[in-house]
Amino acid sequence: MKLRNKLTLVFVLLTAMLQLLAFFLIFHFARQYTEKEFYLRLHQRATIAAQTFLEEDEMNIDIYEEIRNIHLQTLPGEKEVIYPFDMQDNPLDPKIKSKLPEGFIEKIIRNEYAETKVGDTYYTGLFYHDNEGDFIVVLSARDLYGVGKLVNLRKILVICFFVSLIITWLLGRYLALHALSPISKIVHQVNAISATNLHLRLDEGKSNDEISELAVTFNNMLDRLETSFELQSNFVNNASHELRNPLTAILGQIEVALNKERPAASYISLLKGIESEALRLDTLVNGLLRLAQTDYDNKGLLVTPIRVDEVLVEIKKGINTANPENQIHLDFKDLPENECGLIVMGNRQLLEVAFHNILDNACKFSDNQEVKVRLLANADHLHILISDKGIGIPPNELKSIYEPFFRGSNARGIEGFGFGLPLAYRIVKMHHGQLRVTSQVGKGTIVKIIIPNQEKATKKS
């Protein structure tokens, strides 16, 4: 069932329930008022009958009959009965009591007035005191006129109910279509957007209602999708370009070597060139594989407790071997007293790759000037600050540094592929951490890594 039909049905059901309640109350109070009004008429007639029939002057009886016939009219099934009553000497005949509703006489005697209904007949009785003695006056009749009014009211309410249901359905249908028309418009616009026209956006409207928020949310999602498609396209183009260069160089040198016979020294030189390009290609492929690895869910990641200061010391030793001219200084003077604050839950190999890439970049882009590494800790997180005095990153390019193969405009002459920092960024995110970069051109760069410690990671899991 479509949403507009559901909304219409709910609207009709709610309206029908409210109308049923309202019509029931109307009929209930109308019936109560009709009965009360009829009892009042019977009481008045019983009082008049008692006053008239119990007077000694028979002229009053004739006058009463005349007035009743002309003005009061005889009620359907009307019966007037007056019983003399003496509680001690002349109790009421049981045969008379049997003709009246059970307990009716006792109620009249107790309250001096009583009224009841048996079937469609109404009874009114009163205890009348006269100088000749006490009497019980009972008047009964059927309220055909009141019943007719109630039947007519019930028909009117039933007809109004079904007519109102039809009107409510049509009105609900119109309101549902009107309310959902912006959503239908959004659906139409979304169906028109594909991978070839991701630049299109939904009309957000001028109001600040939920429909406008939905359109804004879709547009934000399209922004992310467009950016993702552009990054993917750029990644493929850059990766194919970077892969093609060493392959072209290798094939070219092989073709030169096979072109004619050469001295052994010449072959050695060509093989060294091929080796250099092969190593470059191997580095590029390994980097791409690691970058691709971080795109997968980390549920299968081997996670163990890792002491970060020890990892940094090992990375420093490795960089000393590969680049003896580096000036990396580890600052551990602010380490916490409790060594648990230095332990994080993660994959040691991946974290080593991330820290190594950042430190290697710091050395490379600062031409082996001083690189400081500070380690700080608080109750929940471990902070690693890596600062250098290198060439820096232009402010307008900071937003692109996490894109694979992106290289700053002032770093074209420095060797590299442009996926060291993006890879580190993804690894840190996999460990529920943050990587922030601040930089000034010509003054250096500061990389801040924040990773939850073991206690915080255990609480999250």
Task: Record keyword descriptors for this entry.
56% helix; 4-stranded antiparallel beta sheet; 11 strands; alpha+beta; Helix Hairpins; Beta-Lactamase; 461 residues; Heat Shock Protein 90
Ends apart, CA distance between termini: 41 Å
The helix content, as a percent range, equals 55-70%
Contiguous helical run count: 11
Q: Strands of the largest sheet, in order across it? A: 6-8-9-11-10
Largest sheet: 5 strands, mixed
**CATH-defined superfamily of the largest domain:** Histidine kinase-like ATPase, C-terminal domain
CATH fold title of the largest domain? Heat Shock Protein 90
Q: What general outline do the C-alpha atoms trace?
A: elongated
Which value, in Å, is the CA radius of gyration? 50 Å
Uncertain segments are: none
Q: Judging by the overall fold, what is the CATH architecture of the largest domain?
A: 2-Layer Sandwich
CATH class of the largest domain: Alpha Beta
Query: Which secondary-structure class do the elements indicate?
Result: alpha+beta
Which range does the strand content fall in? Answer: 15-25%
Number of domains: 3
| Strand/helix succession | HHEHHEEEHHHEHEEHEEHEEH
In round numbers, the mean pLDDT is 80
Number of strands: 11
